[in-house]
């Protein structure tokens, strides 16, 4: 399939960006084991979002969201422009298609002014991850049922 995935190195960078620390070798191993599927060279982006969503909900979500926002807001403007978004995603998920990044930006930019406020960003993080997780689970269920019927 045409999946987006994170290599081991991408995964470590993404954890640094999201949580502000470099994951240990054992944590990286666990994430790689839990996030990869057969014949895929890395962690699927959907699996990563699901795993990180669980990790984030176990921590203070507001503070984590604020940290991520600050990491994206490299110019310290208090809002994100498309370029900020693109460069952040390029560091976190370099193989992610640009159209996916644009869709995410449009989704986050609720009033279409070309800026994403912290509030908009917070909505995307809380609702976006939930949507990604639920759609991933649905796909997993569909795949599982397809696999069962093909036996």
**CATH architectural designation:** Orthogonal Bundle
Rounded mean pLDDT is: 77
- Spans of at least 5 consecutive residues with low confidence: 132-151
What value does the Rg take, in angstroms? 16 Å
Strand segment tally: 4
Instruction: Specify the number of helices.
Output: 7
Q: What spatial order of strands do you see in the largest sheet?
A: 1-2
Secondary-structure content class: mainly alpha
Specify the CATH class.
Answer: Mainly Alpha
- Main beta sheet, described? 2 strands, antiparallel
The general outline is: globular
Measured as a percent range, the helix fraction is 55-70%
Organism: Sinocyclocheilus anshuiensis
Keywords: Calcium, Metal-binding, Repeat
InterPro entries: EF-hand-dom_pair (IPR011992), EF_Hand_1_Ca_BS (IPR018247), EF_hand_dom (IPR002048), Myosin_RLC (IPR050403)
Domain EF-hand: 60-95, 96-131
